[in-house]
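User: Hi! I have a protein structure encoded as tokens and I'd like to know what sequence might fold into it. I'm fairly new to this, so please keep things simple.
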């Protein structure tokens, strides 16, 4: 008997994909920053796609890879509710992600994906709000 698995989370692999996600909403904690954007309906790619970024300021290759593995494992738990959403997310890891409790990482990723998955609301134009002087 085969057990059906949920669709895997996609990966961001090209620089333009990372840059496009960086132009969207942001969510910050001490452990990570999430940058994300909703994809257009015209794009044929479906589901959640995630990319990871860790700078050399975080530490050497061993430390960066350990943080990346922890973030991927946390995403496997947190991303189940978001697998069908059309969102590209970049996770920028920090050194605190290495030592914090795993449940906290999962909670941060869950809240972060929710935050960046919301569509941007248009900003009101300057001078057109309720307190603005009437134009004549």
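Assistant: Happy to help. Inverse folding works backwards from shape to sequence: for each of the 136 positions I chose a residue that suits the local structure. Here it is:
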């Amino acid at each position: 008997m085969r057990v059906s698995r949920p669709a895997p989370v996609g990966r961001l692999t090209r620089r333009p994909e990372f840059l496009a996600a960086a132009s969207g909403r942001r969510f910050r904690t001490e452990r990570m920053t999430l940058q994300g954007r909703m994809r257009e309906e015209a794009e044929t790619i479906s589901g959640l796609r995630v990319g990871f970024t860790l700078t050399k300021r975080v530490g050497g290759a061993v430390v960066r890879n350990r943080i990346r593995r922890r973030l991927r494992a946390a995403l496997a738990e947190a991303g189940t509710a978001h697998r069908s959403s059309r969102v590209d997310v970049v996770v920028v890891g920090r050194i605190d992600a290495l030592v914090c409790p795993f449940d906290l990482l999962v909670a941060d990723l869950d809240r972060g994906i929710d935050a960046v998955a919301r569509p941007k609301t248009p900003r009101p134009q300057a001078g057109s709000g309720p307190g603005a002087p009437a134009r004549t």
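A useful reference point when you look it over: The first strand starts at residue 10 and ends at 11. Feel free to ask if any position seems puzzling.
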